[in-house]
Give the backbone structure.
Amino acid sequence: MSRPRTLGCTVAGRIREEDITLVRERARIDEVIEQHVTLRNAGGGSRKGLCPFHDEKSPSFNVTPSRGMYYCFGCGAGGDVFTFLKEVEGITFTEAVERLAVKVGVELRYVDGPSGPRRDPNQRARLVEANRRAAAYFVEQLTAANEARAGRQFLTDRGFGREAAERFGVGFAPRGGESLLAHLRAAGFSDDELVKAGLVAQNARGAYDRFRGRLIWPIRDAAGDVVGFGARRLFDDDRIEAKYLNTPETQIYKKSQVLYGVDLARRPISRASQAVVVEGYTDVMACHEAGVTTAIATCGTAFGPEHARVLRRLMLDHDEFRGEVIFTFDGDEAGQKAAMRAFEGDQQFVAQTYVAVERDGLDPCDLRLQHGDAAVRELIAKRLPLYRFVLGNVARKYDLDRADQRVDATAEAARLVSAIRDKSKVESFAREIASTLGVDVEDVRSHVRRNGHSAAQHPPPARTRARTDDSAAPSLGEERFSDERELLQAIVQYPQVAAERLDGLDGDDFTHPIARSVWELIEKDQPTADADSGWIARLRDAASDDATRQVIAALATQPLRTQGEVTEPLMTALVARVQELTTRRRIHELKSRLQRTNPVDDASEYNRMFGDLVALEQQRRTLRERAVG
């Protein structure tokens, strides 16, 4: 459970409340979220995408920019722009405020706190800036330095001219051990900052450039910030034998999450709902130069689950909107193994997964060099379903002229079919296996059924979901709470209309415990005619538990049952509906008491209650008239 987020606290003080409010107002929540999730218009001023906090096939993640809030109706995650950054990037509230402050141009002020060293509030910005300056320096060296001739020749030999190099920001790291270090020191960066950025390493003799005598590719995140580098060996006397060297893990560079080229490919991937996963920096360049602008690559690591989640969110990958992930592999044994790994991870995608392998084993860069741009486009166009490619690999492993080998091949292929995501296609896949292996289709079906039975007997662990509902309490989404819920939605979404129209409401009008908690927060911070999205954020900040904070986010993003804008008469009617229900409950209780009271033995009490009942019935009729307008 996360603690209430009132002020950004650090060991050296806290961020002033007014500065937090200013950052929140300036940072558009949809623009921040779109760096991680593809959003599509959902009507009513809302936008929708796949939730980054749990696996889902249909989008239930809603963002309402006008109110600065998001909420997932699948897992209950919700909040404002600071909450989103906290959760998606695993940082503190203070770091989220500081990071956004840099982007929106707010200079933060801190309230003095306990003595001690203050963490640099702009540390991430400093690391990004150091990488940006390093990238510019490397580009300058590639263009001007004599020793960079080998790098320029490398690019020329692979069919990349100066324009392509500039587009991708390719540069050259000088061979001297302290060239970049001296350059960035002169720009005001400390050695400690450069080490934390991964640009400089240290040994017993001091600091030195991490990249020396290598061709350099800047690695950018989806927002276009340089977060790291990939460096290729050029000289035989390079002391580091590895062909490629990457930035080590840093605060801003996580290789399991970074995709090279995503800054250029993000929008094409979203538009086409297609991603082409290649194996290297030059392959990405070749694909983009050839017109395949959805190409990206991992950076010094295998394609993994976190990369998959990044792509799914960019493609808005779900059942109703099928996209494509196309892997390109070398035709050698390593490429075959890579294809198997990709197939094993195929369940991460609802998108159709394909493989593109050039018959002569050429990667996209060499293919373009030898046969031109059209050949690269044709390679991608002639993609094969990944399952079919893997099935071909299985078939080649066995001597299909032998009966026992056909049985073994059938068993292995059937296991592949059992893993196929779309069960409606199992029958056609079974027939394809039978045709490929030369066996009876019923034999394949039998193997598939046995595999399916085994999986049912030993199901994988269920995914855990963060739910807002307390198992001991009913859901606020139940129909019996609909009037309470809609009134709170209207107040939260239209505080300007609610201002001065809530007289007479109190905690007893809300029967759901969380609804009552939300109302108590509203009572303490009454909406005004000039209320903005910051008011909603204050409500969340003041909540004492996660369940209430998540419900406020849901109230701010979920459309009301009533269509169109909430007007003053409608707000009055919604208030009246809830008050009428309260009056009905009081009438019911009073009637019950009257039935238990003897009018002869306690006549005065009976007459008093009867008078109250008449008054309540009149009040109910008045409220009913208001409720129906």
Observations:
- Residues 580 and 620 are 6 Å apart (CA to CA).
- DSSP finds 26 helices and 20 strands in the chain.
- The domain at 123-246 is CATH 3.90.980.10 (DNA primase DNAg catalytic core, N-terminal domain).
